Amino acid sequence: MRAVEPIRWTSDGVVLLDQRRLPGEEIHHTYTDYRDVAKAIKDMEIRGAPAIGVAAAMGIALGVQQSKAKDLRELRADFANICDDFACTRPTAVDLFWAIERFKTRFDDLARSSDAGDGSVRKIQHALVDEAQKVHQERRDADERIGRFGAELMPKSGRVMTQCNAGALATGGIGTALGVIRTAVENGAGFEVLVPETRPYLQGARLTAWELHHDGIPLTLITDNMVGHFLKTGKVGAVVVGADRIARNGDTANKIGTYGIAVLAREHNVPFYVAAPISTLDLKLASGDEIPIEERSQEEVTHLAGKRISPDVRAAHPAFDVTPSRLIAAIITERGVARAPYEDSLTKLARAHS
Ligand code: MRU
């Protein structure tokens, strides 16, 4: 199965599939200005934690490539501004900050080994373009490995539930949660996928349903308020979701609604799995209480497809919630499967070389 490509580096610029227009239209935009890539992240033209990391990597490389700096000092100033612009786009997905840190380290290494002239500017420009493509390839490889580890944990039949979209669109590879599902199906599993629509942005209905349908994987779309009913009666053998940030103790931020699914899964003895790359771990944070939660616009709640569906009242829109690690049966990474106590298992995996 060939997964869809939400992002590509080309000689014309960074090409993004506009996820806001799916599933109705498949529109690609080619960006030659890094500010447009930053805006695309903020406006959710590209979304999903690992894909946001890839987009930030490509956007930073684009900004540095387009810089008019004449020497290292000027390039360093441009680079700092570019990184700051990306840091302000979305606060919860830690892959964004992981990518920025990785580029800062790479820039410093390259600068240390260069002279201060325009030759070093060109060398850094080329090296950061290579680095962005390396990040993208690493995401693809990580997804494949997550898929293989996670497929072992999936049931052979019945149903598997997911949440939001943790697929190819969200990573640039085969997906994390959907990578697990895709690999299990390729290995012969015969389950169907229950896809909650994921209000308010409808990543489940618009994106996950589209991806699975595209790959011929059987699915049933449900509304978010059907989750309890199906976990109680629907022969669900596992829940598998992605993550936007995982604290040291395993508490996991993911799309709003995930916490409720985890509580209901525990009530009905359904194992609840998180699938995420090592870049989604934030071991600086002791627990999920420290994870910043993005507040998005009220209009995404009061309006549906641009049409108001409520009276003119105040609406809340926390875009993520935090699932306590006690509800998580395992966290599936590209370096192996972590189980409680997560502080030990995640720290070991983070330190391990792949
Ligand atoms: O707001 P989004 O669409 O970026 O949120 C995406 C999710 O919550 C995903 O489940 C998460 O990023 C994991 S993606 C592999």
Biggest β-sheet description: 7 strands, mixed
Identify the CATH homologous superfamily of the largest domain: Translation initiation factor eif-2b, domain 2
Q: Strand sequence of the main sheet, in spatial order?
A: 6-5-4-7-10-15-16
At the fold tier of CATH, the topology name of the largest domain is Rossmann fold
Estimated radius of gyration: 20 Å
CATH class of the largest domain: Alpha Beta
Derived from helix and strand composition plus strand pairing, the structural class reads: alpha/beta
- The low-confidence runs, each spanning 5 or more residues with pLDDT under 50, are none
Q: How much beta, percentage-wise? A: 15-25%
Euclidean distance between termini CA atoms: 25 Å
Which hetero ligands occur in this complex? 5-S-methyl-1-O-phosphono-5-thio-D-ribulose
Number of helices: 12
Q: What is the residue-mean pLDDT, rounded to a whole number?
A: 96
Whole-number total of structural domains = 2
Query: Strand-and-helix sequence, N→C?
Result: EEEHHHHHEHHEHEHEEEHEEHEEEEEH
Summarize the amount of helix as a percent range.
40-55%
